[in-house]
Amino acid sequence: MHPQATSASSSSPSDRRLSALVRHLTGSSPEIDSQSFLSASPTSGFHGHSVFSHIVLAPEDPILGVTVAYNKDPSPVKLNLGVGAYRTEEGKPLVLNVVRKAEQMLVNDRSRVKEYLPIVGLAEFNKLSAKLILGAESPAIRENRVTTVQCLSGTGSLRVGAEFLAKHYHQRTIYIPQPTWGNHPKVFTLAGLSVKTYRYYDPVTRGLNFQGLLEDLGSASSGAIVLLHACAHNPTGVDPTFQQWEQIRQLMRTKGLLPFFDSAYQGFASGSLDADAQSVLMFVADGGECLVAQSYAKNMGLYGERVGALSIVCRAADVASKVESQLKLVIRPMYSNPPIHGASIVAVILKDRNMYNEWTIELKAMADRIISMRQQLFDALRARGTPGDWSHIIKQIGMFTFTGLNKEQVAFMTKEYHIYMTSDGRISMAGLSLKTVPHLADAIHVAVTRVV
Fold first, then answer.
1. 262 is catalytic
2. Would residue 328 show up in a list of annotated catalytic residues for this protein?
3. Catalytic residue among 262, 276, 359, 390
4. What letter would DSSP give residue 235?
């Protein structure tokens, strides 16, 4: 038998396929060693180490990692107060009845298709979202000075706005409150902005460090961007008063600072959509420019649908049109266009008066339950004689309370009482219930009295 025939017959099918591939790619004779040919590729996965072997294991997200640890705990009394999502009295996720109705209407509509949305998203959703945060009779909307684009919830809205500013705004410095949501510095830094902080929370009073805030914004470079939480500041639950907001507005306009609002809790903080938008409305009413990132995760419970909007209020209609054209250039290479389902749910609810009213009732019920949990926890701590002044629990607002517990106390509560929260002592009031308040109060009492 011919030597080549013997070699071919003794080789495996995979070797023969490789040899055929080599001949096809190189146009060479079968005598070429297919193994040596393939080993020349530095990314070949057939031999040697992975080209990614140098990568180190990243730490868990400090907020989402709380839930990972919670899920691993077999204790029957474990309590997760880290996640920023609403829970019922039974500790279950809630899908609003009005959301289920809207979804059913969409499913029943046989004319609906799954075509791509435009780059800026669902037009009806954008129009209704702008009205929700800026007011139905807003002069800025009436004069076509607002451009609104659908984004991937609040985070996506912040990222799109930040990348737009990094490309087109003359100042690349953004001031964010200290503390703030853990994702803010990452979003803005990766978008190309330089992040600085301004004082916000006073750990002594567990309230607003208003004087420090004014001093830091007063010394900020002219024209800098300033991130403002529209309401229900995360993580502290501390908001400026109406009068304090007015002072902030006057200072920022005097120095030419550009407001960038993060509105993640409209209606979810106080139970009133209008009251929770007051800070934004004050800045829009003076005719100046600002950016507003909206999220429907909390107030409609559409966490996993990733529904949000970015509105940019401009001084003139022609400027707004140019801004929108540039926002498209930011969005197109990022995610091309947004998903249709969640935005359609929002649009169905906002455009129908009866469904809108039903939503506001359910929204207020969620807000009221959280406010009730604040009172329950405060009363439980007072009844136990827990050292310290815990009135900040009922003075703060929104989903979160900044308890004032230190890292050691938090670690103690997790180890001994199986209560999970972020290491800075932030707890989600939405994760509490009448059944679990006593357990939390006991843990706080022991942690404060035994752990320094």
1. yes
2. no
3. 262
4. T
